[in-house]
Design brief:
250 residues, globular, alpha+beta, single chain, 4-stranded antiparallel beta sheet
């Protein structure tokens, strides 16, 4: 196995640096609405909607709020008209950054995202300026003490996973989007605790950051994540363990 996936360095390692609450209900509701709009309201036929609803339930969103969000997406209930927009650009050190947003006003959101990039020393680019460097993958993270790496590899490779990488804190399973449900089910059937499971954009190659550059990149990533319309932020940044430790120390 390659062991070179760097999703963890910008995602669950960053979680150790800040203890911000998960996405607000409004963001989760928009994700449900846009998923239902794009693929229909039946979770059996719409894996994306099923995943969005699972996230909402994990964040204790009320059942009626979830149902209303689905109905808005299918057009059975009046509501805002959302569209999904992908913003691409660069942060400090030439780091490639993508921000997936759901908005009811593209012009407003575009202007605000551009300001966030500029304020953090980055710049918003044109369509596909960095997207070609990323591929969509299923990413399933388990606590390091949940299972031995060798045993986990046996379970997930048989189910169709592509890669497993481990650190002191977590195991990270990477798979193709079409294998995501099958791999996750295999993990759950083995009685293993899943820390997170999501579809994400993973960079083909990464850029290793020093402390100063990492601070700037994380500042931009966090500012984008805080935007009301932002659903997910992806980067090709690789923050080494020693730099993470320095960041955590302040």
């Amino acid at each position: 196995m390659s062991g070179h996936s760097k999703w963890s360095t910008i995602k669950h390692k960053k979680a150790a640096l800040d203890k911000k609450r998960s996405k607000s209900w409004s963001k989760l509701a928009k994700a449900i609405t846009i998923s239902a709009k794009m693929g229909g309201g039946n979770v059996d036929d719409n894996p994306r909607l099923r995943l969005a609803i699972e996230k909402a339930k994990a964040d204790n969103m009320p059942k009626d709020t979830i149902e209303k969000a689905v109905l808005k997406g299918t057009g059975e209930l009046d509501g805002e008209s959302y569209e999904e927009v992908l913003y691409e650009g660069y942060g400090a050190g030439g780091v490639a950054i993508m921000c997936l947003a759901t908005t009811d006003n593209r012009n407003r959101t575009s202007g605000e995202i551009k300001k966030i990039f500029e304020k953090a020393g980055g710049n918003l680019g044109s369509s596909n300026c960095v997207a070609f460097q990323f591929k969509q993958k299923g990413v399933i993270v388990l606590p390091a003490d949940a299972v031995d790496e060798e045993r986990l590899m046996e379970i997930v490779l048989e189910a169709g996973a592509e890669d497993v990488s481990s650190s002191q804190t977590a195991h990270e399973v990477i798979c193709a989007p079409e294998s995501f449900e099958q791999v996750r089910k295999a993990i759950e059937q083995a009685g293993l605790a899943v820390q997170s499971a999501d579809l994400a954009m993973i960079a083909d190659n990464t850029i290793e950051l020093d402390l100063a550059t990492a601070r700037k990149v994380l500042r931009l990533v966090e500012a984008l994540e805080d935007h009301d319309d932002a659903d997910a932020v992806y980067s090709n940044a690789d923050i080494p363990d020693e730099v993470v430790a320095e960041l955590a120390a302040g």
